[in-house]
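Input record, target 12 of the design panel.
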C-alpha cells in the first residue's frame, strides 16, 4: 500500500514573502478545468465565470499566543528564533492547501524566513524519512499525511515521532489526538463526485448511486471511478466505509463491476471534468472543492447520507527534527483558531468549534448535511496483514 491521496510530488520553498513551487510536469487540476471551459464544454452550464466565494480575512495576532498557553511558552518561541527561522515539512498536501497555513504562520512569527514544503505521496513521506535517517539524517521537521495505517505503522516504531503535548489539545478535545503526539490537522470528508452533463440525477446516498449506475449499465460501464484499495489511502477509506456501514458491501457488489480504479483523487477529478468518468465515490473533498468552484456547475459533490467517511489528516513532529522548537510552534499554530482558519482557507475541513466564515469549509458543514450519526470516522490504527489480505480478497472478488 504505497500510493497517495493526491497527485504528484513536488516542492514548495517559501522565503520571505515569495512563494515558489516546483512540481512534476503534469497539467494541474485547475488547468484541466480551465481547458475544459476553453473548449466550450461548459457552454450549456452558463458562462465560464467562477462563483467561488471570497475567503474571509484571517486576522493574525502577530507574536501573541493564547492566554491558555503555558507561562514558559515564551522560552519555546525564543528557542525557535535561535533555530534560524527555517522549517521543512513533508506533506501529502498540494501547495494550494499549504499556502494559507505557511503564509499565516510567517505572519504569526516574523522571524520565520523559510518554510520548505515537500509534497510527497501519503506513504512515501514516511518511507523517505526512515530511509534518510538510516542513511544519516533527514531534513524533515513536520510530517503531514492522511494515510492512517501508515501513520500507525510509523509511530509504532521507536524514535520516529517527537513526544509533544500541544497546549491546543484541551481546547480541541480528545478526538484531536489520533496517536501519541500525532494530531488531527483537519477532518476531511469523502464525497461522491459527478459530472452533471453525464449524470443528470444527483445521487444522495451510496445506495442511490448504485441504483443510478446499475439502472443503465451500458452507459456507465467503465465510467465510474473507485479509489484503488491497493494504496494506503484507498484501503483506509474503503475499509472504513464497510466497517462503519456493512450494508455498503451490497452497494459495492453492484458498483465495482462497472468501475475502474485510480490511485489519486486528483486523477479521478481530472477525468470526471474531462468526461472520461461520469462519477466516482470516496473522493476526498479537499481537492474537490476548488474543482467544483471552478467548473461553473459541471462538477458537483455530495456527502452520502447513508454514511460519509471522514478521514483525519495527521500532523506530527519527526523525532529527529532539525528544528524541533520551530516544529512545535508550527504544530500548535495549525491546531489553533488562527491556524484552523488557514487550514479551512486551504480547502481542508477545519473541525475546531467557532471556525466559520465565507469560503471556509468545516467538519460542521458535513454534520449539517448528513447528521452526526451518519458520519464514519476513520481510526488511526494498525491492521493485521491477514485481516488486510482477507478484506482485499473480498473487495477484489466483487470487481470481477
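The sequence produced for target 12 reads:
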Amino acid at each position: 500500500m504505497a500510493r497517495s491521496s493526491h497527485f504528484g510530488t513536488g516542492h514548495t520553498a517559501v522565503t520571505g514573502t515569495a512563494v515558489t513551487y516546483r512540481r512534476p510536469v503534469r497539467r494541474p487540476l485547475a488547468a484541466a478545468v480551465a481547458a475544459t471551459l476553453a473548449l466550450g464544454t461548459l457552454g450549456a452550464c452558463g458562462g465560464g465565470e467562477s462563483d467561488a466565494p471570497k475567503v474571509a480575512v484571517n486576522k493574525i495576532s502577530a507574536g501573541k499566543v493564547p492566554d491558555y498557553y503555558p507561562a514558559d511558552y515564551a522560552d519555546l518561541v525564543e528557542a525557535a528564533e535561535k533555530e534560524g527561522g527555517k522549517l521543512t515539512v513533508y506533506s501529502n498536501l498540494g501547495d494550494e492547501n499549504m499556502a494559507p497555513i505557511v503564509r499565516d504562520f510567517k505572519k504569526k512569527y516574523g522571524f520565520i524566513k523559510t518554510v520548505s514544503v515537500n509534497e510527497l505521496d501519503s506513504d512515501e513521506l514516511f518511507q523517505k524519512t526512515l530511509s534518510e535517517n538510516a542513511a544519516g539524517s533527514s531534513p524533515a521537521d513536520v510530517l503531514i499525511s492522511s494515510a492512517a495505517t501508515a501513520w500507525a505503522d510509523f509511530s509504532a516504531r521507536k524514535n520516529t515521532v517527537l513526544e509533544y503535548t500541544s497546549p491546543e489539545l484541551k481546547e480541541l478535545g480528545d478526538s484531536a489526538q489520533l496517536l501519541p503526539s500525532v494530531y488531527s490537522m483537519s477532518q476531511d470528508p469523502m464525497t461522491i463526485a459527478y459530472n452533471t452533463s453525464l449524470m443528470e440525477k444527483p445521487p444522495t446516498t451510496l445506495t442511490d448511486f448504485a441504483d443510478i449506475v446499475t439502472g443503465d449499465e451500458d452507459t456507465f460501464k467503465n465510467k465510474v471511478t473507485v479509489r484503488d484499495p491497493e494504496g494506503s489511502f484507498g484501503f483506509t477509506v474503503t475499509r472504513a466505509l464497510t466497517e462503519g456501514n456493512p450494508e455498503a458491501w451490497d452497494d459495492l457488489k453492484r458498483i465495482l463491476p462497472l468501475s475502474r480504479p485510480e490511485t489519486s483523487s486528483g486523477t479521478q477529478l481530472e477525468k470526471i471534468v474531462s468526461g472520461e468518468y461520469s462519477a466516482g465515490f470516496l473522493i476526498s473533498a479537499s481537492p474537490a472543492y476548488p474543482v467544483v468552484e471552478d467548473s461553473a456547475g459541471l462538477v458537483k459533490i455530495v456527502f452520502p447520507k447513508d454514511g460519509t467517511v471522514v478521514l483525519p489528516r495527521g500532523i506530527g513532529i519527526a523525532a529527529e527534527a532539525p528544528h524541533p522548537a520551530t516544529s512545535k510552534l508550527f504544530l500548535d499554530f495549525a491546531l489553533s483558531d488562527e491556524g484552523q482558519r488557514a487550514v479551512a482557507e486551504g480547502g481542508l475541513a477545519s473541525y475546531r468549534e467557532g471556525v466559520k466564515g465565507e469560503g471556509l469549509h468545516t467538519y460542521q458543514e458535513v454534520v449539517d448535511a448528513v447528521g452526526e450519526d451518519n458520519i464514519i470516522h476513520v481510526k488511526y490504527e494498525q491492521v493485521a496483514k491477514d485481516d488486510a489480505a482477507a478484506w482485499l480478497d473480498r473487495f477484489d472478488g466483487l470487481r470481477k
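The CA atoms of residues 128 and 138 lie 8 Å apart.
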